[in-house]
Amino acid sequence: MKKTVLMSAMMMAGLSLAVRATADVSRALTEVSMQEEQIQIKPDDLPTPVKQTIASDETLKEYPVAEAWQIKSVSGKVTYKVGFDNGTADKLWKTYDPQGKEITE
To answer: Whose CA is closest to 67, among 100, 86, 97, 41?
Structure first.
């Protein structure tokens, strides 16, 4: 009799842990789908207004574009994050909207 009660208690405890683990996984998947989408693009693929803004910025004339990212937020807003090689280990990063306007954070 004691074995039956003990086995039942162990099964119930195991079941409650399994349900909790499943709920945590579901919540984690939901959170991942709510993040922004980041796609690395070639600097030549930046929109023309962004390239024009970069070309006309006197502070960036000496820094080549090292990498570029297209970022799409959950709300659908698109921005471009551009990294410039400034000769240090840390790149100089600037963010632009599709019309070429710099976004300051």
So the answer is: 41
Q: What is the dihedral of CA 54, 50, 34, 29, to 10 degrees?
A: -70
SS3 86: coil
Residue 31 C-alpha from the chain's centroid: 12
Question: What is the value of pTM for the model shown?
Answer: 0.65
- Mean pLDDT (the chain) is 82
Does position 8 have pLDDT exceeding 70, yes or no?
no
Cβ-in-10-Å burial (0-12, 13-18, 19+) of 17 comes to exposed
* Residue 41 confidence class, pLDDT cut points 50, 70, 90: very high
- Residue 50: burial class (beta carbons within 10 Å; 0-12, 13-18, 19+): buried
Instruction: Record the tokens describing residue 103, joined without a space.
Output: 């976004």
> The tokens 């019309």 sit on which residue?
99
